[in-house]
Design a protein that fits this description.
mainly alpha; 2 strands; 13 helices; about 350 residues; A middle domain of Talin 1; globular
Length: about 350
């Protein structure tokens, strides 16, 4: 992790503790919590980079996405406890869009600046694209269509969709890690690398970072309502843009760093694999959590959210289907993300 991110952590983490104790402005506490979560997520990325080297690119990429999405899960848990269901739904949308367009776009752009053409496994990209069609396009569009005339079936339909999505996600992991491991063999001729941290140290750092993120996430959620009223931002915009970017900072840093080192298979596994996990694992888990907490959430998203996610999946599928990437494709993905972000801001 860079020196400025370490300084950000050293300054912001104690200040949030002191500020909460002294009852500082909720707006200030909100931004301090955001500043603390970013380097904490970066620290998690540093640890999971070591795990990626020690465990291999496929397992490493999945672990990276898992621990990156742990931040999203933790924020979602606390938001559900506060009854901020709309923020949770919007953050799911933002996480999917952020990973598909912002993270993948930055990876294509930054990697393409250093290497004119970067290659990756086409079969793996095609399989992930197919899973994204199920996890996002079908699982999230179908509830909106069927509840258009019968809103009362939203919860029952969402429970069924969540159960099927979880099952398909687990089957996808079994497919990629066991029955068809040869499909996901990476073709890059990379030199052997030595992990900067040992496995024990990396796991300890991940555990400590997770505890700190839990504290900061609770503080972040407590101040969302005040920030929304102070800045005139809708809860949808806060969820889609602010919370999603903060919650997925680990993927942002790790995926871009892997692309800079010409490890596009790992970079795409982090970006697309994380989006899959948000749609097919995190969303169902948060839905079942909301039912247990007494603040039921459905998988019925607004039409702007659905349109953005469908177009995001379509764009990243078109850009990755040939197994090659360049900086212009990255700029296209980033442009689409900023246009969608402007739309949510103006809603």
């Amino acid at each position: 992790m860079s020196r400025w991110m370490l300084w950000m952590l050293v300054v912001s983490l104690p200040l949030t503790v002191i500020g909460e104790w002294l009852h500082w402005s909720q707006t200030l506490l909100f931004w301090l919590a955001c500043l603390a979560i970013i380097p904490l997520a970066g620290l998690m990325g540093q640890a999971t980079e070591s795990i990626a080297i020690l465990s291999g690119p496929r397992i490493g990429g999945l672990l990276n996405a898992t621990f990156g999405n742990a931040v999203e899960l933790i924020i979602g848990f606390f938001a559900i406890r506060q009854g901020l269901v709309q923020v949770v739904q919007a953050s799911l949308t933002g996480s999917i869009l952020g990973n598909l367009l912002l993270v993948a776009g930055l990876s294509f752009l930054i990697g393409g600046i250093r290497y004119p053409i970067q290659t990756f496994n086409r079969l793996a990209a095609g399989t992930n694209a197919s899973m994204m069609m199920i996890g996002v396009v079908i699982a999230l569009v179908i509830p909106a269509i069927f509840t258009y005339q019968r809103p009362e079936i939203g919860i029952q339909l969402s429970i069924g969709v969540a159960a099927v999505s979880l099952l398909l996600y687990l089957l996808g992991l079994f497919f990629s890690l066991f029955t068809h491991r040869n499909v996901f063999n990476y073709t890059e001729n990379l030199p052997d690398e030595e992990a900067p941290w040992g496995m024990i140290r990396a796991l300890v750092v991940l555990a400590a970072s997770t505890v700190a993120v839990a504290y900061e996430s609770e503080l972040l959620v407590k101040t969302i309502d005040h920030v929304s009223r102070s800045f005139g931002w809708s809860e949808v915009f806060i969820g889609v843009i602010v919370v999603a970017i903060i919650g997925n900072a680990a993927e942002h840093s790790s995926a871009v760093w892997m692309a800079w080192r010409n490890r596009m298979d790992v970079s795409l596994e982090i970006a697309i694999g994380s989006s899959l996990q948000i749609a097919m694992f995190v969303a169902p888990i948060l839905l079942f959590t909301s039912l247990a907490a007494g603040h039921p959430m459905t998988l019925v998203f607004s039409w702007p959210e659905i349109a953005s996610m469908v177009l995001g999946v379509a764009l990243i599928t078109l850009l990755s289907i040939d197994g090659k990437s360049n900086w212009l494709e990255g700029a296209m993905a980033l442009g689409a993300y900023f246009i969608m972000g402007l739309g949510f801001y103006l809603m």
